[in-house]
């Protein structure tokens, strides 16, 4: 690989006697991996459903080494049992340490690797707000969170400054996984090498400062802000942290106490190089010690009375008696909202919570995403297949299956839901969304 001369000079300065070892990494294949989605299954089920073996990575108990390519057609992928993720990318959420019941903002969230990891740690409790400024990427983010069965997320495509002004002081934890020069992507994405220049590094550092300034607004007093990049440049890492601390005396740097990687330069943050088992990451953690007032109002559009009962009856016709209480209608869509949700006006929200159904005339048609977010055993009707069953492969190609009985029926792989169909007359009419199907 042809690495830019200035990049090589900078890395030599950073790594001195380790520089040759670093360079020799470019002769080896990149690290790849999968991250277990514990919202949908346990490690044993995932291993049993994969046609390859995986081994633990040091960056998170959910992160494993294994192939990262050509996995998108596997039933376990469709069922959201895992996310294909380079292992060191899991480090930032380990440092963020989100807890069930908290309010967590992922400000630069697409395509959703870190958001789905946060969701797994939150166990569906509290609020995950996943924002992505580029709308086309926000749609991919939404699709990934739906595949992973995340129930308590709001997905938006808002400018960070506008979003964080609207949600000032609201969040317990905020993650800024910043757009960067991507030096830690060079082994995986040769285009990142072509786009690299010292000018781009400087431009990234400036943009990172702006995103961090916005993010700071959203953190409540005593809350945490985690900053991560997948690049090695000092300007974008320690430089960005030091500049932020100079501008924001209301924040303190917290020591990152983890076993993986190595200490950052001049500060108790963390750097990860390929010598440490990952492609490359930087993670720093701040805590807001200064006061911050929050004037965010709770969401006011919850269904009540007859409308609520109708929504609950529809839910009960698919999933039985554990009926949610928080429903709302956005346009033609019926949503089950997270237990915690602020007013969302003007924040370019693509989806809040889980879509239960779409209006068809005077009835609701169930949505793929609600089945995807429920375990097979929670659905009133389900059919279950082994990962290598020909029927499952046919379902994922959009074909009709043989099926007894009548009604909406979840289709599962080893007990994990991967879609649904409508049974009648001995057949299961396929409802797997066209855009998600495997090619015939
Ligand atoms: C490193 S990626 C995020 C990866 C994501 N956290 C994950 O784990 O899947 C950075 C994201 O920031 C977005 N971005 C680009 N410019 C931005 C800006 N000015 N403000 C906020 N986000 C921006 C990019 O579109 C990109 O999706």
Please characterize this protein's 3D structure.
With 440 residues, the chain is of the alpha+beta class. It has two domains: 5-288, Rossmann fold, CATH 3.40.50.150; 305-336 and 353-436, Roll (Nuclear Transport Factor 2, Chain: A). The chain has helices at 5-15, 19-25, 43-49, 75-78, 91-96, 113-122, 135-147, 160-166, 190-195, 198-218, 238-247, 305-319, 368-372, 390-396, and strands at residues 33-36, 55-56, 63-65, 82-84, 103-106, 127-131, 153-156, 171-177, 219-229, 251-254, 262-263, 270-272, 281-288, 327-330, 333-336, 349-352, 354-360, 363-366, 382-385, 401-402, 407-413, 416-424, 427-430. The strands form four sheets. Strands 5, 6, 7, 8, 9, 10, 11, 12, 13 and 16 form a ten-stranded mixed β-sheet that branches. Strands 19-21-22-23-20 form a five-stranded mixed β-sheet. Helix 8 runs parallel beside helix 10 (198-218) and helix 10 packs across helix 11 (238-247). It is globular, with a radius of gyration of 23 Å. The protein starts with a helix and ends in a 10-residue tail after the last strand. The model has no long low-confidence stretch (mean pLDDT 97). Residues 108-114, 132-134, 137, 160, 177, 179, 207, 211 line the site of S-adenosylmethionine.
């Amino acid at each position: 690989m042809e690495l830019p001369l200035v990049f090589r000079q900078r890395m030599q300065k950073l790594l001195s006697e380790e520089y040759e070892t670093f360079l020799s990494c470019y002769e080896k294949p990149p690290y790849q991996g999968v991250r277990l989605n514990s919202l949908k299954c346990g490690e044993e089920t995932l291993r049993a459903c994969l046609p390859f073996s995986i081994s633990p990575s040091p960056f998170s108990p959910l992160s494993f080494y294994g192939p990262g390519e050509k996995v998108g057609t596997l039933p376990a992928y469709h069922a959201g049992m895992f996310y294909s993720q380079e292992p060191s990318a899991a480090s930032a959420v380990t440092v963020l340490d989100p807890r069930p019941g908290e309010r967590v903002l992922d400000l630069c969230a697409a395509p959703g690797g870190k958001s789905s990891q946060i969701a797994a740690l939150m166990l569906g409790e509290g609020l995950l707000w996943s924002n992505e400024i580029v709308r086309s990427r926000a749609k991919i983010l939404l699709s990934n969170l739906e595949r992973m069965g995340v129930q308590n997320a709001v997905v938006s495509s808002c400018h960070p400054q506008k979003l964080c002004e609207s949600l000032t002081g609201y969040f317990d934890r905020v993650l800024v996984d910043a757009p960067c020069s991507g030096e830690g992507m060079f082994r995986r994405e040769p285009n990142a090498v072509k786009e690299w220049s010292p000018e781009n590094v400087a431009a990234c550092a400036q943009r990172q400062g702006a995103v961090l300034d916005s993010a700071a607004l959203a953190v409540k007093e005593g809350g945490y802000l985690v900053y991560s990049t997948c690049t090695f440049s000092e300007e974008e890492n320690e430089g960005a942290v030091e500049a932020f601390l100079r501008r924001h005396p209301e924040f303190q740097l917290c020591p990152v106490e983890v076993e993986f990687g190595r200490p950052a330069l001049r500060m108790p943050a963390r750097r990860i190089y390929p010598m440490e088992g990952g492609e490359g990451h930087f993670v720093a953690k701040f805590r807001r010690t200064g006061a911050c007032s929050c004037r965010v109002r709770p969401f006011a559009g919850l269904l009540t009375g007859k409308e609520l009962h109708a929504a609950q009856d529809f839910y009960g016709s698919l999933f039985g008696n554990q009926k949610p209480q928080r429903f709302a209608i956005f346009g033609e869509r019926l949503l089950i909202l997270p237990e915690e949700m602020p007013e969302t006006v003007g924040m370019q929200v693509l989806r809040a919570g889980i879509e239960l159904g779409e209006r068809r005339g005077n009835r609701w048609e169930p949505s793929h995403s609600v089945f995807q977010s429920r375990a097979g055993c929670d659905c009133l009707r389900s059919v279950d297949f082994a990962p290598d069953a020909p029927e499952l492969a046919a379902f994922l190609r959009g074909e009709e299956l043989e099926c007894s009985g009548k009604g909406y029926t979840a289709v599962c792989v080893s007990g994990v839901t991967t879609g649904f169909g409508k049974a009648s007359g001995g057949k299961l009419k396929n409802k797997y969304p066209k855009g998600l199907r495997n090619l015939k």
